[in-house]
Amino acid sequence: MNLKLHHINLATENVSRLNEFYRDVLGLSDEVEGLPVLEKKQGYAGDVSFVSDGDIQMHLAQKDMMAGFNSGHIVNPVSRGHIAYRTDDLDGFIAHLDDRGIRYSDWGNQAVAGWRQIFFYDPDGNVIEVHQVDENI
């Protein structure tokens, strides 16, 4: 089971302002490879902008305090944002969480086409995403 930092999601009330800041002040590019296709009819329809340093993506997402409720999940990844890791074995990682008694929300491909995603909390309440690219979804 391999984990690699994939993106950082920041939740904001003003996506365009945050996008401009990260492009202009930090020089991040809005030409990002491998962008997700958002499923906007399944609980979250907010605006999202993408920037990258060439290695790590940043997903600048419109804050939505109701996305968890609207999608039927306990963990809301766009209330405060989250950090995301990509794995090559999501089922193995889920078993790893189960062995440790860590509860998670299994979003499947509900938010992003072609990605199986789970979200869970660290001990301080920060949201962590682990996803696997699945072309069969």
UniProtKB/TrEMBL annotation:
Superkingdom: Bacteria
Alphabetized Pfam families for the sequence: Glyoxalase
InterPro entries per the UniProt record, alphabetical: Glyas_Bleomycin-R_OHBP_Dase (IPR029068), Glyas_Fos-R_dOase_dom (IPR004360), VOC_core (IPR037523)
Residue intervals of the VOC domain: 4-133
Name of the protein in question: VOC family protein
Gene source species: Parasedimentitalea marina
